[in-house]
Amino acid sequence: MKVLDILRVKGSTLYTVQPDEPLSVAAQIMTEKDIGSLVVMERGVLVGMLTFREVLACIVKNSGDMGATLVRKAMDPQPLTCTSETEMDDVRRMMLERHARYMPVMDQKTLMGVISFYDVAKAVVDSQNFENKMLKAYIRDWPDQENQPILG
What we know:
Layout: H1 3-10, E1 16-17, H2 23-33, E2 37-42, E3 45-51, H3 52-61, H4 71-74, H5 88-98, E4 102-107, E5 110-116, H6 117-140
Parallel strand pairs: 1-2
Antiparallel strand pairs: 2-3, 4-5
């Protein structure tokens, strides 16, 4: 299974923010849209990733105040990325190694989407459920052993 398979199911809705926008605006967008991350884009180029983890770290650093902090000050400037052709096993490994919950999907310089750890876990469970269903159907159709001729 590849990242492309997740993007097909998930859809193509993307939420982005610019690095010089106030962090409070980004947090408001994330809250209103019920999303955990925003891709930070500048002049059509990926320049960072902002998740609630970075927002909370900034608030704690500023003693509970977001103030006039800009997205640029809070974002991860080197987010983990993948392509639509990346295998799911590789994505799981990369996300676990970097403790990343969100990963932009890039086609060279073009943002194709964002996948979350939830998306990856759901894809794995769905795949296992399908395989389990196929195995159970195969076992139900197993030939009756009593009526089989004995070879030998």
